[in-house]
Structure formats: C-alpha cells, structure tokens
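Example with several molecule types.
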Amino acid sequence: MTGNAKTSRGALTPYALWAALFIVVPLVFVAYYALTDNEFSFTFENITRFFTATSSVDGREVHTYLLIFWRSLKLAVISTVICLVLGYPLAYVMARASERRQKIMMILIMIPMWMNFLIRTYAWMTILQDTGILNGFLSVLGLGRVHIIGTESAVVIGMVYDYLPYMVLPIYSIMAKMDIKLLEAARDLGCNSVGVLRRVIFPLSLPGVLSGVTMVLIPSVSTFYISQKLGNGKFFLIGDAIEGQYVANNLHFAAAMAFILMVILLVVMAVMKRITNHRVYGGKAA
Amino acid sequence: MKTASKIYTAIIFVFLFAPIAILLVFSFNDAKSLSVMSGVSLRWYRELFHDEATLQSVRNTLILAVSAMVISTVMGTAASVGMEKLRSRWLRSALNTATDIPMTNPDIITGISLMLMFVFVGRLFGLANSLSFWTMLIAHVTFCLPYVILQVQPRLRQMDPSLPEAAQDLGCTPLRAFFKVTIPEIMPGIITGAIMAFTMSLDDFVISYFTSGAGFQTLPIRIYNMTKKTVTPKMYALATIIFFVILALLLISNLTDQSDKKYRKK
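Resulting structure tokens for the full complex:
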C-alpha cells in the first residue's frame, strides 16, 4: 500500500505545483500590482483612484470608474434577466420534446456557441448599423428606420445573443433529469399547470437557473469587445477600462480594477449561493 | 409540441441563426460590402486561401490547441486519480477550490493575472518582452485543466474500487493495474475532457489576448486584429468554413454517440 500511496502522490504532484504556480500565484500578483506603484512600493493610490477619479460628462462632474462599473453591472443584470426570461421556456420546451428533437435542438444551440464570438458580434454590427440589414429590411416594409447601434440596447442585444446558450444548457440539463412522476403526482393532488410550474418545476430547476445566471452574468459583466463594437466605443464597460489600461501599459491600475472586480464578484457569488441554498434545501447546507 | 411552443422555439432559433445566415450569404458577395449584396462569387474564398497570415494563424491555433489538450489531459487525469486517493481532507478541498478558480473567475482576470506574473518574472530575467508561445501554452493548459478534471473525477467515483485491487491480487503491479483496469474504465471521461480542452483552447480569445506575444498569433487574435480595421467578406468566408467544420464535428460526435449507446444496450 505504501508503494501505491507513493504513485498516487507522484500522479498528483505535477498538477498541485501547476495549480499553485499558475492559478494561485497569479492572483497574488494581481493583488501585488494593485497595491503598488510603478516602482513597486506599497500604495493605495490605484484603489482610491478607482473610487474617486472624476471626469466631466455632458458638463456634469461624475465618478469615472464608479460610473463605468455601475453601467457594466446594470447592462449585465439586464442581459442576464433577458437571457433567463428567453432561455427558461426554451429549456422547458427542449426537455419535454422527443429524444430526437432534443438532440437536434442541442446541436442548434451549440453551433452558435462554438462560432468565434468576435465574428458573431461583428455580424450583429452589420445588422444593427444605421445603413445595415435591419434598417434595410424595415424600410422595405415601410416601417421607417431605427437607430440602435451605439446605444445601450445594442450592447444588451449582443450580450444576450452571445450568452443565451449558457443560460439554456444548464437549465435544460436539470429539467431533462427531472422525475416526471413528481409532476404527475402534483397534478393528481390537484395542482393546475401554473401550480405545477410554480411549486414543483421551478424550485427543482433552481440549481440550473443559478449556474445559468452565473455563466451569463460573469462574462457579460467583464466583457470588453461587445461594448466596443456595438456601443460604438461610447459605452465603456469595466472590461474596456481594464483592457484600455493594459494597452496603455498601465499595469498597476489595470490590476487594481481587476482586483476590485474579482472581490465584488466573489461577494455576489457567495450571496447568490446562500440564497439558493436557503430556497432549495431549506437553509440546510447541501 | 404545441403550436405556441413551436412558434416560440422557432423565433429563438431565428434569433440565434440570423447573424450566422447573414455571414454565410455575404461571404459570397461579389463586392466588398457586408450589407449590400451585389453578385455571387467565390472571390473572398480565393483571397482567404492566399492570405498567408490567416493561414499561419490557423496552423498556430491547431498547434496550440493540440499541445494544450495533450498536456492538460495527461496532467488532469493523473491529478484526478491522485486526488481520489488523497487522505488529507484539507489538501483535497484546497485543490478542488484551486480547480474552481479558473472556471468561476472572468476570463479577463485569469488573463490579466497570468500576464502580470509573466511580465514580472520576465523583468527579473531582464526580458523586455516575456510573452511568447510558451506563456500562451501555460495559460491554455491552466484554463483547460479544470475541464479535464471535472470530466474524469465523476468517472473515477462511479468506478468500483475493487476492480484495480482484484487486478493486483491477480499479480498486476499497481502501475499495470492502473493502465489495464482504471484507464479503460474512465476512458469516456478522459475523451470528453480532452475534446472540451481542445475546443476551449481553439475558441479562446480573451486569455490569449493578454498572454500572447507579438510573434505568435492565433486565429481568434487574428480575427480581432482584422475587426479593428475595415472588415471585408474575407472574414465571413473564414467564418463560413468554421461553421461547416463545427457542424460536421457536432454531427459526427452525435452519430458516434448513438452507436455507442446501441453497443451498450447489447
């Protein structure tokens, strides 16, 4: 047995070293860069700059980075809610379809996911442009033109488009495994369709909803390409700000923003986990 | 399916495929426009196959994805086996937490964090530019590893632990028992993990963006540089080819999945 223990330790060592070196240590570097200046001496300046820097927008004095962060959070939450509202019924329909249909729909959901997101986003740009395909289509129908590109709506459309599959798949996989007898039992006991949905299906699907929400919220709050292309560069998000500082070789301030974003997301995740644990398992830890 | 749900599903899929349909169509455009179709031609496909920088980036992407897949699959499988046998609970939960980090952290943070470390270490050695193929490979292996581990771990837990023990009782060395019994048992998990690692590496833009050097360009980075300038239908031609490759891969993997099921039913 000692030989066995030695072999299994030998099998684990490379990964343990790798995880320490390339997962944990880099995060320490984020904190280190965030809390130092260009000469690597300790400072809170980068952190305070995030919370206090101001600039004037339309003649008003605003907190530059707090505004950017607030906008990122707002657009990410809106996109996540839209993804949930659009994706939940689709996941439900998929889980109830015949096995063949389920397979086809799975492939159809996964194709856009595997296409490069830069190209997909760019394609949306050509659709939404003032002289783009959507407006061409609308004017042919005699409906007049709409101005979408460069608005927050365009950014939200891009986010919903890019991340909808990440909402559908986890909810679908939970729903597909759901015991159909539970639904029948609820019906036998006098529940109507809405009741079954609200009191049986929805509570049971909550873990899928949670992972779907996480998988949409995190990339949309930190994206830096969609906003540049569909927002015409007018709507800076926190990802754009980090990327901008990286391009400008301002690594310490980029690290500070990444550090703040990471801490806030950790708190949000912990709170969300707590809430669902409470709802799903009646407060008892799973 | 009821009519209402049919219509609903159709609308969602139209939304999902509208941009893809548009880039398919405009890749055959005769003119340079991405919104006005003036004639059908294969001009942009011809130009694509003469664009050496793009072709090189495709080769780079494949080299990187295969290397990242092989390294992360071998290391991740070994790690899963080692973690199952680990007695120290503390160490196990520490490792599981570390494994979760690249999956829950936004890509931009994973990318920035690795970049900061590479730049710092590079500066210690007096390098002006420390980002290269190797830093990218390290980054790709790092974000691929959790996918491999999360696929292999459940397979190991489902496996009957007395199987390798029986092999050892029958005279196998522990190592031989591992390769003859354990590996075949967990093979489906290893293969799925490897495929996921490969596709994650192929598709990654954000982490590559922060960890790539000037000399080594992958396809997503090449596409990013293309979209910074005026885009021609050449990029759509590229996207169309990618679309058909993905479609073929998904169909093949689905068909093999079905034959696998038939085999298991027997």
